[in-house]
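Section 3.1: Structural characterization of target chains.
Under the original work plan, the team committed to producing a structural model for every single-chain target entering the pipeline before any wet-lab resources were allocated. The record below documents one such target. The sequence was received from the expression subgroup and is listed exactly as submitted; it comprises 187 residues.
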Amino acid sequence: MFISIQEIIDIIIMTFAIGYIFSDVFKKQPTGSYDPLEYYKNPLLENIKSGAIIAAPAIVLHELAHKFSAIAFGAIATLHAPYFWYILIILLKLMRFPILFFVGGYVSHTPLPPLESAIVAIAGPLVNLLLWIFSLMVIKHNLINKKYYHIIIPFSRLNMLLFIFNMLPFPGFDGYHFISGVLNYII
């Protein structure tokens, strides 16, 4: 089975947690038929929805890329929502601490040879790179109605940041796992 019931539950929880965590960053914008009484009726839920619509696809697809590339190499791979980190970040957010870190999710898999492990590590950031390039092309060639730019522009920027951030060669980051896998393959 490609995705277990627990992984589906984790993806749903990831989506809601990510939506809440990013609710202050990607606030819902008033639309053309702006009614202030309706717009401010429940801004938190609207902002969570907006945060989830913009941020969750970038993060969930990133993690699924790790999972499916590991499976393609014959590994057993499982996607996980980092419940402890979500609780910690949500508590810090509720206490108005600035969020300085974020763990979107992670994939555990059975051991792979170094080169395959490097490819699995870079699969997530490559999805963010492709989403970034795709969204830039959509904007550049006006492939969607401009009323959706309030979604596609931050989506593009977030994917750019996720690609760059994840490719940093520090332990725990995809860039580190990619470089160490390539070096272990060469050496």
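Residues 43-72 form the longest helix (30 residues).
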